[in-house]
């Protein structure tokens, strides 16, 4: 093994796969308040906080290599209800729960973690398991 | 629709699903240099940079609800080669490429993006499409 790995600054992109981009966009934009930084028929990309991006790919549109002037993007594809967690401030938890309820999104479960974090779980229109997590879940949050 | 959504601080957790946890751990720890902050038979959790976590779940072990003293974690499950991108400094790109080659990981493709970022694509043992991306890919990186 060579010398220690160079550093990784963070997870930059997290990808979910959706069957109906319009339906998914209504959810992520109207309910969660995200604003796209890129959108076409295949991909909607949202900035989340200062340093991460949530990517919604149209299911079935990503398995083939995409050739672009600058190179190529290899294929990928996801099935099943994936999971990702979004970080929120503890002070915003009550407002987020109220917002989910007001927008008709059932809260499927809650967790209070040993280090003090609270997580709230709910589903997007494709059944992906989303989590809003307050600080105290991991050493990095 | 109620008032504007409270802020999201970032994507905290990105989940991949693996068939062989030992094999996956060797890849993420030996090749990518990640150090677990939690590990059991079902889950290995890695901090990535200051504010994000990469979660490896054993495929088949996540579909059922997990009941814990603090609440419950609903089921999720993923199939197929998913995608996530990891942020690296531009100054570390050459070292990262050399490290991938030295550890026998084929570089499947490269992209130079319009705003100046370079992405390098490769696969983990489960075929998930990983990307190392230098700044200039998105407004958030």
What can be said about the biggest beta sheet of chain A?
4 strands, mixed
Instruction: Could you tell me the CATH topology label of chain A.
Output: 2,3-Dihydroxybiphenyl 1,2-Dioxygenase, domain 1
The CATH class designation of chain A is: Alpha Beta
Sum up the overall morphology of chain A in one term.
globular
How many H/I helical runs of chain A? 2
CATH superfamily heading of chain A: 2,3-Dihydroxybiphenyl 1,2-Dioxygenase, domain 1
Secondary-structure element pattern of chain A, one letter each? EHEEEEEEHEEE
Tell me the greatest interface: A-B, 80 and 80 residues
Q: Regions of chain A with pLDDT < 50 over 5+ consecutive residues?
A: none
Number of strands of chain A: 10
Mean pLDDT of chain A: 96
Strand line-up of the largest beta sheet of chain A: 1-4-3-2
Instruction: Give the end-to-end Cα distance of chain A, rounded to a whole number of Å.
Output: 31 Å
């Amino acid at each position: 093994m060579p010398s220690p790995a160079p550093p990784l600054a963070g997870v930059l992109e997290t990808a979910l796969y959706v069957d109906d981009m319009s339906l998914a966009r209504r959810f992520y934009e109207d309910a969660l308040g995200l604003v796209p930084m890129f959108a076409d028929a295949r991909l909607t990309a949202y900035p989340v906080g200062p340093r991460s991006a949530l990517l919604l790919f149209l299911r079935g549109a990503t398995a083939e290599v995409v050739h672009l002037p600058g190179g190529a993007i290899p294929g990928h594809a996801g099935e099943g209800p994936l999971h990702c967690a979004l970080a929120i401030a503890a002070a915003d938890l009550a407002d987020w729960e109220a917002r989910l309820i007001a927008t008709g999104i059932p809260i499927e479960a809650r967790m209070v973690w040993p280090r003090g974090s609270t997580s709230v779980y709910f589903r997007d229109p494709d059944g992906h398991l989303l989590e809003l997590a307050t600080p105290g879940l991991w050493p990095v949050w």
